[in-house]
Amino acid sequence: MEREEDLMSGIEDKVVAITGASSGIGEATALLLAERGAKVVLGARRSNRLKALTARIENAGGEAVCARTDVRVRDDVAGLVELACERYGTLDVLVNNAGVMPISPLDDLRVEDWEQMIDVNLKGVLYGIAAALPVFRRQGSGHFVNIASTAAHRVVPNQSVYAGTKFAVRAVSEGLRQEAGDKLRVTIVSPGFTRTDFAESVRNPEVKARLEESRDTFAMPPDAIARAIAFAIEQPADVDVSEVVVRPTAQV
């Protein structure tokens, strides 16, 4: 039977940068990894929530630093990686978590929402790769954890563009894994319905109501995804958890 200190050994003292860290999956991941001894570098657009989370981690005895980060801005993402390297001298893991989900029927022609999903969900991941990959190559080690979705496995009405961005995240991540060689690790985590504030960005009233009903009925807590991320990180350096799909038992 594994002891608690054995489970912590693969996470303790690792430097982990997390985008979209101010709420939901990102917040839960930051808290769990910090509790297990990681030094977390937190990025998100909502500075007040980000600073509050950083203080919460520090008050609990953990190590955290934060920077306002809009993943649509390449320099912001590069700055988050630079902050990790400047503060801690290294970056072990980048969790590309930031995402948006303003879904709607294509007939609504909400083109700005489509562009936002592409910019955040896909280009944000690409900017993370562009920022961290040279660092990982220089170090000879590093781990990308890219957050996709069960929508990257199954397309349903109203989620065409969202699913397209998440399919793309899986494709890019798998290509990166194959190119990475034997020194870098790449993990895709595909969450199902998770209890976050994703429905707030949905502008179609009917779609929003259905999402909120499903969320309130059977969605998982964000901690379920945080544990999956921790599982991938804590493996030995020569073990790559390529993909984890986590969904509520009630989700089709």
TrEMBL record:
The keyword Oxidoreductase applies. GO terms for molecular function: oxidoreductase activity, acting on the CH-OH group of donors, NAD or NADP as acceptor. Keywords: Oxidoreductase. It comes from the Bacteria. It comes from Planotetraspora mira. This is Oxidoreductase. SUPFAM superfamilies: NAD(P)-binding Rossmann-fold domains. Residues 14-196 form the Ketoreductase domain. Belongs to the short-chain dehydrogenases/reductases (SDR) family. The keyword Zinc-finger does not apply.
